[in-house]
Every structure is written in C-alpha cells, then in structure tokens.
Amino acid sequence: TTEQLEYRVAASPTELRAILDAGPFVEHRGVWRLLPAALEREILDAATSVVTALAWDPAAVDAAALLREVQQHFGDQALACVPSLAVLRKAVRSVLVLPTEVSGAQGDQVGAAGPLLSLDAPRVRRFRALQLLREPPA
After folding, report:
1. Which residues contact 82 (CB under 8 A, 6 or more apart)?
2. Closest Cα partner for 101 from 123, 128, 70?
3. Per-residue pLDDT tens over the stretch 5-20
4. Residues 107, 113, 116, 121, CA torsion sign
5. 79-132 residue pLDDT tens
6. What sign does the dihedral 16-6-110-78 (CA atoms) show?
7. Residue 10: in which H helix or E strand, if any?
8. Region label for 95, one of left (φ > 0), alpha (ψ between -120 and 50) or beta (otherwise)
C-alpha cells in the first residue's frame, strides 16, 4: 500500500508519489504493482489496434469502452493483465495527449481522471514503428 511504501522508502510522500506516477507502477485495489514493459507494450498494442479497427476517434476514446475491448483481447487472462482502468491508463500513457495540450470543453474530459482518452496520432505512429522494429525479420 502507499502507507507501507511511505514507511519503507526514504522519500517524502510527494517525492514517492512522483516516482510512482512517473514509473511503470500502478495501484490496483490499494496495492502497488510493477507493470512489466512487455505487458505494457502488449496492452498498448491492443488498445491502439482496437481504436483503429473500430474506427473510433483517437482524440476522444471512451476509456471504459476501450477497457472492455482490451480485456476481451486478453480473454481468460484479462483480469490478470488489465484488471482496471488505472492499469490501462498507465499502459497507454506514452501515446496520450497531455491534458495541458487539450483546450476547450474537451480538456475537462481527458486526462488522468476523465472519461475520455485522447490518443496523439504522431505518438501512436512512433509506437507502431518501434513495434515493427522490435520484431525479428521474417
């Protein structure tokens, strides 16, 4: 739990929260877990593929609907791989438009707690290119 980490880690609560928010860590049911890089990439790949396949507007993706679709992708392992919206948000954070980059009424709907995720097209393209480069040649 956060309280246990605050007790065991020599950092202020603010510093600890910054480390947890910036790193590959996610809180689920009050417990902090490491989100492995390979799983993060798989969740991100599934999420961006779902948005493309279902022709959703990448600038305004319903976070709850995307969670359901990504969980469906993982099948029986869904609750172990992507049990919550917090895990999904952490996995796709590298391709999200930052709340500071969004203006107007939509700005209130996206971000860490909003019901919408706004995917940044150049960041998604970069992720897909890196995925292709990671694959061994056929």
Report:
1. 43, 67, 70, 71, 74, 88, 91
2. 123
3. 777 888 888 888 888 8
4. positive
5. 999 999 999 999 999 999 987 766 655 555 555 557 999 999 999 999 999 988
6. positive
7. none
8. alpha
